[in-house]
Amino acid sequence: MARAPAQSASLSPPQAQSQSASLWKHAWRRLRRNKLAVAGGSAIIFLAVLAIGADVIAPYHYTTPNFGRNFEFPSREFLLGTDHLGRDVLSRIIYGARVSMTVGVVAECIVLAIGVPVGALAGYYGGRLDMILMRFVDVMYAFPRLLFVIMIMSMLGRGLLNIFIAIGLTGWVRVARLTRAQMLSLKEREFCEAARAAGAGNLAIIVRHLLPNALTPIIISLTFGIPEAIFTEAALSFIGVGISPPTPSWGQMVGENQQFIRSYWYLCVFPATGIATIMLAFTFLGDGLRDALDPKLNE
Amino acid sequence: MEGAYLSQLCRERLSALPLSTPSPVAILQIDMLRTVEERHERMVPYIIRRLLWMVPTLLAMALITFAIMHLTPGSPLDPVADNANPLSPEAQRNMAKQYGLDKPVWQQFVIFLAKAVRGDFGSSYVYKNRAVHEIIRQAFPVSLHLGGMALAVALVGGLTLGISAAMYQNRPVDYLCSLTAMLAVALPNFVVAVFFILLFSLVLQLVPTGGWDAPSHWFLPTLTLALGPMAMIARFTRSTMIDVIRADFVRTARAKGLHERRVILVHVVKNAMIPVLTVVGPLFAGIGTGSFFVETIFRVPGLGRFFVESMTGRDYPMIMAVVLLYGVFLALMNLLVDLLYGVLDPRIRYA
Hints:
With 299 residues, chain A is mainly alpha-helical. Chain A contains 14 helices and no strands. In chain A, helix 9 packs antiparallel against helix 10. The radius of gyration of chain B is 27 Å and the shape is flat.
C-alpha cells in the first residue's frame, strides 16, 4: 500500500483504490505463506477465544477458594494445580488472557489515538509546534520508558484504567515521531502538490492523502507496540503495581508465586508460559506482517 | 612484500637526506600527527560541551519526576499498603513538618535542588534513619557488578553469535542465532528467569535459586539479564556484517591474498562494529531497568530492588536520587559510546 499508490495517487481515485486492494491481497497471500506468522496468528485467535469466553470455558471462577486444598499439584480435578488460597490455576490463567488481550488492544489504540494526530500535525505544519514536540520527545527519550511507567503507576495506584493511562502517556511519543517523519517526506511529493492544486484543504490533504500513505509503517509499529504493551502490563503486575489483586493477570501470578518457586514450581511456570506464548505469537505475526507489507525488506 | 620493500626504500632515503629538509614521507607523517593532535584538541571541548548539556537534561528529568510525584493524588504520609494503619491528622501534620512536606511544592523543589547539588539527598522515608546516599553506596555497587557482568556476557556472546552467523550464513549456526535472538528479544526477562530457575536450579540442581553471597549465585541473574541485550547485539552484528562482507574493500582485501580470518577480523568486524555501537547505548538503559525484575526474582540486594520498594512506598528522596543516578549514568555511558565511534571510525568528527 505504501509505495505504489503514492506514485499513482494523482490518478483518478477508483484506479488507485483497485491497485491498493490488490496490494492488500498480495500482502495477505505472502502472510499466509509464512508458517511462523500463521502459527502466531492462530495462537492469538485461540487466546482471544479464551479471553472472550472465559466465563464459559474456565472450570471455576478465578476467586473461588477451595479450602483445605491449597498448593495442590496438577491433578485431574485441578489440571494445573491450585495456589496458596486453593484457587484453580487453570481458571486463573484463562481469565488472565483477558487482561493481556485487553491491555494489548486498548492501550495500543490509545497510543495511536494520541500519537498519530500529534505526529501528523507536527510533521505537516512544522514550525513552533514541531519544535516544542521534538524537544519534549528528546526529554522523554532520556528516561528509560519502563522506569517512567513504573513511576506513573506507583503514583496513580493499581488498576486497569491506570495501566492504559501509563502506557498511553509514554507510548505515543514513538508513534508521533514515526508519523512526523512520514509526513515530512510525504508532504513534499507530487501527489500532495496535486491535491493542493486541486483545491483540497490542509485537513483533507492530511486525512485523505497523507495518512493512507503512511499506513504501512504505522501498522508495523502497531504490531510491535501490542506485544510491548502486553509486556509492560505483565512487568508492572509482576512487581505489584499493575492489576489490582483479585483479578488475575499472568505477570501478577508469576510475581506473586515466585517466592514459592522452590517448592511449587508449577505456580510460576504455567503463567510464565502464558506470557511467553502471547509475546512470541505477536512477535511472529508482527514479523510476518512487516515482511508481507514491505516486500522490499525481504530482498 | 611490496610494502616491506617500499618502507625499506623510504628508510634508506630518509637516512640519506639532511635533517633540515623533510622528505615527502616525513611530511605525510607530520601531517597525520597533526590531525591526531587536532582530534584530541577537538575532543576536549566536545566532552565539556556534552557534560554541560547533561545539566538541563537532568534538571528536566528532576522536574518531571518531581511533578509526577507531587501532583498525583496520595502522599507518603497516607500509606496505601493493605495492612498499613492510617495516621491521625495531627500526626500527619507533624510528620509533614519534619520532612518539609508542608511547604509549597515549588519551594520543596528548590530546597531539593539546593541540597542535591551538594550531594545531600536527605533520608529515606521507608528505611527510617538511613540517609539515601548511604543506601545507594551499599546497593549501587551490587547493581553495577551485576550489570557489568551482564554487559560483558552480552557483548562477548552477542558478537560471537552474530559474527559466526554472518560467516556461516544459512547454516545451522545461523539458524541457532536467529532462533535465540527471536526468543530472547520477545521474552520478558522475568519469564526467562522462571524457566532458568526451573532448568538450572530445580531440574539440574546446579545453582541456588537466589541470593548474592557466593559466585555461584551470580550465574543465573547475569545470564538472565544478559540474554536480551545479547540477542539484540547478535541480530545487529549479523545484519551489519552481511552488509560489510559484500563491500568493495573486503573484496580488495581478499584479492590481496589476505587470510580469511584476517579479512574478517580486521576489515569486516571493525567496520561492522560502528552501527552495532548504536544499539549498545540503549542497551545500558535496558540492563538498568531490566535489573528491577532480575534483582527482585533472584533476591539480589541491588539498587533495582530498592527502587521498586521506594516507588510503592512513595519514598520521595529515594526516588529522586535513583532517577537522577540512572540519568547521570545513562548520559555518561552514551557519551562513552559516542567517543568510541570516533576511535573506530576516524572519519567521524566531534561537532
